[in-house]
């Protein structure tokens, strides 16, 4: 079965796909709102440090294990382990990753569905369909179900086409489009009244907050979610990379792209909030804190677009198209995790496997939509706050303790013959063995206490 595994056909294709997975709602939504509510520039600084010092090494662990084993997470973790106990643990961690990836997809599709409906709203408003435009933006079970299903079908459609014709093709098309829309929106917003105040809030660090545990925990969680770590997406993407590619460099590029897009999204969202304020939209809540999370994206910004007249319709359309694209290039990477496992271990063809699994996950999304109050945040926290860090530790343990060091060296050497002379090789193996798991664990314990 190894012979018909997909493979990324070019370096650009891999970078777009992996960066596409990384760049998602976590960047264009999570990062700016986290920054706004955690002391602006102070959060930005901590995020940069943690992303490069903790998330990048963990990303490398996934890429190396994936490319070395040429397999899905379950098979991969099992095959690098020795002894029955470790193999069982590998299997368990692999399954846990697949389940978490699927659950993340189940809530992600709901939010992405909102992005789709908000993309259509300015079209409906422009066409004078007032009641349709209201229906599209009002929180309602029917709307949620319909758009979650629409988004899930898009995801299924891309993934059923495979690695080259699905993931690589669509990521390579959509990611540059995302960048163009983002930059155009930033330019537009920065010229509006009030933008500079937002920029100051974003870029000037409030150093008094930099050591707050809450800030660190949010920054670490943000970095792990944003780089799609722990759940096997990067592992499976790594398994589709050619042996001749230089993995440490690819990983660094993906990390840099992810961070840059998050940074750019901050340049859009925070100034936009203060422009909204100048236009009479309130951006602080009763306690004096900046509005964030869903209020920001679904109320403050649309209220801002409303104040901009006809231009507002175009800006709103562009903004939510951007959010939808970012969501799709991430959701396909989540669905690839269970699909790759099923195709590789159960001899099912890709199309059938994708439809069965995609529809099953859509079923979970529907259950969440129908029990939104009790389930939505529960699933979000269960997966991103608790499971992702634990799985991140497991991946570091597999790369640092379980897999033979010379095997890793051999693997990385194939695309980087002089690896032993690089800073990467001097630092990373020790790092991923001791520092990463310990620091993730400490932050995790801290977050449990908080
Ligand atoms: N990295 C994506 C984002 O920032 C989310 C994601 C998490 C994707 C886990 C895949 C796996 O939105």
Question: What are the salient characteristics of this protein?
Answer:
450 residues; mainly alpha; binds phenylalanine
Distance between the termini: 47 Å
- Helix-strand makeup class: mainly alpha
Q: Beta fraction of the residues?
A: under 5%
Main sheet specs:
none
Average pLDDT works out at: 92
What binds here, in terms of ligands, is: phenylalanine
Q: How big is the Rg?
A: 21 Å
- Dominant shape: globular
Secondary structure tally: strands: 0
Point out poorly predicted stretches: none
Task: Count the DSSP helices.
Answer: 18
Task: Name the quaternary structure.
Answer: single chain
The H-and-E topology, N to C, reads as HHHHHHHHHHHHHHHHHH
Describe this structure in words.
81% of the residues lie in helices and 0% in strands. With 450 residues, it is mostly helical. Helix 7 (141-160) packs antiparallel against helix 15 (350-370) and helix 11 (233-239) crosses helix 14 (309-346). The mean pLDDT is 92. Phenylalanine (PHE) is lined by residues 21-22, 24-27, 104, 225-226, 228, 231, 233, 330, 333-334.
